[in-house]
Design brief:
single chain, 12 strands, two-stranded antiparallel sheet, alpha/beta, 10-stranded mixed sheet, globular, Rossmann fold
Length: about 220
């Protein structure tokens, strides 16, 4: 059976609908929790890798020294040209490793469902929870953008897709996030009521996510 590795940084930032896609496509799912400081798995075991989000930032290695171990592992995956989908923190880690810069987003937080323009000229209402952004690494192709935060999703070659937003977000996780919105979240931010009222946007975003996973891992 094909194996999917999920790199999960925190319990409250789960892989979400990634697991539904894996079941639909007969993937055996394994996890690595780098924050537990467990050894990195053998990369050759996996035909697909998904990197989840997390509240830590890529430049916080002193606070989270395990980030160094994860970055080395991701560098190995990239050098092997393995197929990777990076989500939020995952997209920032890949961008940094490949030569882009990650930094605090000066206009502020992006939280809740926000419309994006996609490469094919469409519109995607994507679920966000972030206060950092990144410069595109050399050779990356921008595939989604908006005026508030330009670099929303990118593709690197035929083996990497990464999103600043959370396409894996389930309705359950969105409800949990809605309870966490606080005054510190200033910027382009939905409040609890707006977030819950936008729940009908979860399914179209999931459909888009599954299409990207199909393209990356199945074609």
């Amino acid at each position: 059976m094909k194996k999917l590795l999920i790199i999960q940084h925190e319990n409250d930032v789960p892989p979400g609908s990634t697991l539904d896609w894996a079941r639909l496509n007969n993937y055996d799912v394994e996890y690595w929790y780098p924050a537990e400081e467990s050894p990195a798995p053998a990369p050759e075991k996996y035909s697909a890798v998904v990197i989840c989000g997390g509240s830590m930032d890529t430049f916080e290695e002193e606070k989270f020294p395990w980030l160094q171990t994860e970055k080395k592992f991701l560098r190995t995956l990239i050098d092997r040209k393995q197929k990777i989908f990076g989500i939020c923190l995952g997209s920032q880690l890949i961008a940094e490793i490949m030569g882009g810069k990650v930094y605090i987003h000066n206009p502020g937080w992006e939280v809740g469902f926000v419309p994006l323009k996609t490469l094919d000229g469409g519109t995607l209402h994507a679920f966000h929870w972030h206060h950092c952004t990144f410069d595109l690494p050399p050779g990356a192709e921008l595939i989604a953008t908006n005026d508030f935060c330009r670099n929303q999703a990118y593709r690197l070659g035929n083996n990497i897709i990464a999103t600043q937003f959370h396409p894996e977000a389930t309705e359950e996780w969105i409800r949990e996030c809605a309870e966490e919105v606080a005054p510190k979240h200033q910027g382009q931010v939905q409040n609890k009521g707006q977030m819950l009222a936008s729940m009908n946007l979860q399914k179209p975003q999931q459909d888009w996510f599954f299409q990207q996973l199909d393209r990356l891992f199945l074609e």
